[in-house]
Amino acid sequence: MGVIAPSDAVEEEDVLKGIAVLDEWGLKVKVGRHVYARIGDFSAGTAEERMEDIREMVFNDEVKVVWAAGGGYAATEILPALSREVIAKIKANPKWFIGYSDVCLILNALTSFRIVSLMGPNLGGLAEWDRKSQEYLRQILFGEGVSGIGPEAGWKGELLGEARGRIVASNLETLILSFGTRFDPLLYGHGNVILFLEELETDKSQLQRHLDVVLGHRRARRISGVVMGRLTDIREVSYPEWGRKVTPEGLVIDRVKRFGVPLAFLPDFGHSDWNYGWWQSLKYFLGNRRFYSLPNGVDAKFTVTTKNCAVEFLETPHFVPPVEVKSEYGSTDQRSVGGEQLRKSDAESRDGGQEGGN
Which of 2, 22, 54, 255 could, after both became Cys, cross-link 63 (CB 3.0–4.6 A)? Predict the structure, then answer.
């Protein structure tokens, strides 16, 4: 198991707490050489140092899991590490990439290449989530028959229906940042997707705008269902009068209802809320500390009824090589990756008039 810090600087104490959990699981851990490096208070080392750690973990055949120590704001500058050579190596020797928040930029990129990953707790925060969250993740990693997220989770169904598609799980802002790039998980690939989204520290007006952008994507008709995770510390500074009249959940319902696909809220993944507002220490001990890890790229069925909601994984989410799907167009993928072009085995046509992937 390899640890990297692709974004913000991380605290060694937090990472060691996460490693202690992995020790209980019997996993051997290799910490990247630059994980504890710092560029001021912003990033864990230079972009070159962080990319070096990623490449080292990818090309180390003993490393089966590449786990991000933390999130932040600096992952955009290390995306060039996902070169043609690196992507080919991951496809030939599959390994999990795990993390969330800013790390979703990497997960989105891997999803665009049909490489399965896990949106789950960063290693530096793993010990903070409850035991059920940790055990659920452990079972996925060890291939112990995790079949989905059942009605016992904290679901709230809003728009009834059934959807099937490959899971695309991401922080909302990082998904938007992926759009139009060579790492866009909606642009590349074909067939339906089920979006799992969460968001942190933004205005309601920005949330509304981001939702409109997602549902207005030129290939938005691939979206067959939406699961919304935590909406943490969503406020409104610019338009306080309007902001008092709307809720984040109401904005999501309104947008998705217009789009016309099933919707449910699952406040069991995404950024925690115990660091915000009053009585933080009490919220930490008494509040929701659940995080269901989500296997990006896995085929799934999403059901919302008047009685319950559930997501069923239709593929086993563990060390399974990515499914290679021949393009229905048979052209080349013009994405330049590390200055080179990739053959298009499963990417979508670049025709701007193509709206859906069905």
Answer: 2
Please, what is the Cα angle at 12 between 8 and 16, to 5 degrees? 120
d(CA 307, CA 43): 46
What Rg do the C-alpha atoms of the chain give, in angstroms? Answer: 19
Strand partners, 67: 3, 98
Output the CA–CA distances (angstroms, integers) from residue 178 to 61, 105, 251, 253, 276, in the order listed: 29, 7, 22, 23, 27
Contact of 266 with 155, CB cutoff 8 Å: yes
| pLDDT tens per residue across span 150-206 | 999 999 999 999 999 999 999 999 999 999 999 999 999 889 999 999 999 999 999
Q: Which CATH superfamily is domain 2-141 in?
A: Murein tetrapeptidase LD-carboxypeptidase, N-terminal domain (3.40.50.10740)
Task: Return the closest-CA partner of residue 261 out of 308, 227, 233, 297.
Answer: 227
pTM (2 d.p.):
0.90
List every span in the chain annotated with CATH 3.50.30.60. Answer: 149-313
Q: Kindly state the tokens that stand for 230.
A: 């935590």
